Input
Amino acid sequence: MRRLFVRLGLRGLALAMLLAAAASAEIRIERLDARFDAVIAPGATAETLATGFAWVEGPVWDARSRSLFFSDVVANTVYRWREGEGAKPFLAPSGYAGKTPFAGREPGSNGLALDREGRLIVCEHGDRRVTRLEPDGRRTVLIERYEGKRLNSPNDVFVAPNGDLYVSDPPFGLPGAFDDPAKELPFQGVYRLAPDGTLDLLTDGVRAPNGLALSPAGDTLYVANAERANPVWLAFPVGRDGRLGAPRTLFDARAWVAEGLPGVPDGLEVDAAGRIFAAAPGGVHVLTPDGARLGTLWTGVATGNVHVTESALFVTANDTVYRVPLVH
Output
C-alpha cells in the first residue's frame, strides 16, 4: 500500500500533479446500481476526520475504546482518533526501531487489525515483521520469517473469526522494493498464522499481494494485486482444509489505470452481506461477490485502505482519513 509516485518512482510533472491532487482531495459518491442505496443512503456525504499526514493506511475501529487507529507509514507512527479529541500519536516508532536512518520512504506500520482480545496487530514495514501490542506496551513478534528467511515487508492483515491471522507480504516497504538487495524470499506471499503458531504459505502466485479479506462464509479469499501492469482483485476458493484453489479475476481496474487515475488495487474489506469495499485507483469501489460494481467513492487520489463497521466506512486516502455513514 503505497502512493503511486513512491511505488513507480515518477518524477517531474507527474509527481507535481499527484501532489497537487492530494492537497484538495474530496469524496464524490457515484451510484451505479439500485442496490447501492442499501449500502450508502442517498444524500450521504463523507466527513473528514483527520488530514495533513504523509501517507495514511490501515484504519481499524476499536469499539471498546471508541477509537480509530491508523498508520502514517512515512512518519513511522500509529495514530488514535477519538470523537472530540482528534488524532493523536499512539505508537511511535510503529514499524522501524533501528538506530540507523531508514533508507526508504516507508519505515512505519502499514496494516492494522484487532485480535479477539482487542489487542492491536501491526504490520511493520521497516522491521519486516508482524507484531501484537500487549496491554503493558510490550510487542510480541507473531511472524518474522518463513522457512528461515525474513519476510519482505508485511502489508495488510486481518483476523478471521476462528483466530487465524491472514497477512500479505509484498516488498513495498523495502527501499528497493522488488529489487532490494536485502530481500530474502524469491516471491511475495499470502500467509495464514493459526492460533497454535503454525504458519502456512497460502499462495506465492500473486506478484504484489496487498489487501485481503475472507467472505462471510469463509469460502473465498479476496486478494488485491497492487501493480499498475495488472491491477486486479482475485477471488480464491478456500477448501475445507484451508488451502486455496485456482483464483478467478473478481474485478479489473485497467480502465482507470489507462485514464491515469492515481493508485492501485489496495486495501479491502468485506461486510456482513458479502459486499467488497476495495481501495482502487482514484477511490473505493463497492463490489458484489460476482464482481458487479454497485458504486464508487471517488477521492481523486491514491487511496490506500478501508475499514467497515456496522454503521460506518472509514477510508484512508493519501493524507486524509474519512468517515462515510453506512445504512444499518
Observations:
- The chain has one domain: 4-325.
- The radius of gyration is 18 Å.
- DSSP finds three helices and 27 strands in the chain.
